[in-house]
Amino acid sequence: MQAAMARSFVMPTHITMLLGLVLLLAGVVSGIQLPFIGKPLMPSPISHEEERYAPGFTLRHIFHHGTEDHPKLHLRKDVGPSYRMASGRRSFHVSSRLKTVTRMSQRDPDFIESYLHYARTKGAVAIDFDWTHQDIMVPDITDRDTMVEFAKVTADAYVEDPTAGDWIDVGLPYNETDGFGWDSNGLRGHVFADETNTTVIIAIKGTSAALFHSDGDTVTSDKVNDNLLFSCCCARISYLWSTVCDCYEKAYTCSQSCLESALYAEDKYYRATLDIYRNTTSLYPNANIWVTGHSLGGAMSALLGRTYGLPTIAFESPGEQLAAQRLHLPFPPIPLNEITIWHVGNTADPIFMGVCNGPTSVCWLGGYAMETQCHAGLECIYDTVNDKRWHISISNHRIRPIIDMMVSYNTTPECVAPTNCQDCYDWNFD
Q1: Which of 139, 247, 292, 369 could form a disulfide with 258 if both were Cys (CB 3.0 to 4.6 A apart)?
Q2: Residue 226: phi, psi to the nearest 5?
Q3: Residue 184 pLDDT
Q4: DSSP string computed for 71-139
């Protein structure tokens, strides 16, 4: 059944355009969130053919999107030039290269979100999108220092804001601020831009949990989303567990439509990620967007990259392919080795490798139903078990040891497409 989600048929161009208009109107009627209305930041002219090393990236904005009890809370904080990242630096540099990517011609958020709404309706037919081939700059994943810099950016997304300042409400009219704070339930996105506003990087925060040696008030919301995204059916793995949605029907049988609605719910992280992207592109409408994140943030960045065809580097992400299929995200008709979603991980991380499950695992004991292992992108795996003699341990999932590990290698691993991977093969989804 999962394979059936990826099927599509060819529609005449005029019908596709008409459907796009219908979806757009449907999205407006359904109450899609409007983007932040502000002065767009336009990129300076630059020759991508000659660009190799991008100008310095600096943190420009931090978005906080509420979830759970405050799903409409969406705030933005503009960061001044005095801000220092966790590394103590104000800026960082990465190398890039020109690459031809295949993605949808129509990538306006209104169109995309209208399609996602339509795809979940009863009787929806599969759509063959109009795909385009574009030459854009992407991160140079063969450059070790670039990969280390991206890992440091994801680490910075965990750090509490060290400066005071005002937050701008960029969501719908919403007056509720009780309980809001830097670590309150919700999703964070750090937005970096280069000196010319040509390239923008969105770094999405990952899971905060004592299990991963990272605490914070987002623990509850992070855990709900982990269990929703990476379990076969609402974290129903034992009668002793509390489920995170009501889709379980009977033994090894789960409602597919229920799961799809639960993943796309307004108070969950995928919707929050879409809103962060929408507001970022409102500020930088002509910029080339890259995405990155670690752990849960890596999975969310990969889902966002899949949705809009964005170059993405995800560190130590759990398997997000099942969630991408349940959300009906577009899969371009290209060989897997041409995908620009790179999953970076190591063989001693049980979460990345998909083996942190079962009654004796640390994840199970901590209340995390991490049942998936398939990544919807290329895998760039450091073999730390054989190269470094590391033992499989949850401590090898944390971002800071990963940064030290990456620095210890002279090269980056080859990124390859996973083969023969299937999640939840013993479940029935109707």
Answers
A1: 247
A2: -55, -50
A3: 52
A4: TT-EEEEE--TT---TTS-S-B--BEEEEEEEEES---HHHHHHHHHHHTSTTPPP----EEEEEEEEE
Amino acid at 425: Y
Cα–Cα distance between 182 and 159 in angstroms, integer?
10
DSSP-derived pairing of the beta strands 168-169 and 378-382: unpaired
Between CA 90 and CA 147 the distance in angstroms is 18
Domains of the chain: total? 1
pTM: 0.84
Q: Which of 208, 295, 301, 317 is catalytic?
A: 295
Two tokens, residue 194: 């280069």
Segments forming the whole domain that contains residue 22 = 2-429
How far is it, in rounded angstroms, from Cα 147 to Cα 43? 24
DSSP string, 230-294: SSSSTT-SSTTSPPSSS-EEETTEE-HHHHHHHHT-TTSHHHHHHHHHHHHHHHSTTSEEEEEEE
CA 138 to chain CA mean position, Å: 17
What pLDDT is attached to residue 413? 98
Measured distance CA(306)–CA(233) in Å, rounded: 22
**Residue where the block lists tokens 């008709």:** 333
Active site residue 208: no
Which residue do the tokens 């509850």 mark? 220
Helix (H, G, I), strand (E, B) or coil at 116: helix
Single-letter amino acid code for the residue at 234? C
pLDDT given at position 40: 59
Neighbour tally for 86: CB within 10 Å = 14
Pairing of strands 253-254, 428-429: parallel
What is the Cα–Cα distance from 310 to 332, expressed in whole angstroms?
12
Q: What are phi and psi of 248, to 5 degrees?
A: -70, 130
Ordered mean pLDDT values, 10 residues apiece, the chain (430 residues): 39 46 42 42 46 70 73 77 73 93 94 93 87 96 96 79 55 37 62 93 76 55 90 89 91 94 90 91 95 94 97 97 96 90 98 94 91 96 98 93 96 94 93
Q: Residue 418's beta-bridge partner residues? A: none
What are the residues whose beta carbons fall under 8 Å from the beta carbon of 185, sequence distance 6 or more?
66, 67, 68, 69, 70, 217, 218, 220, 221
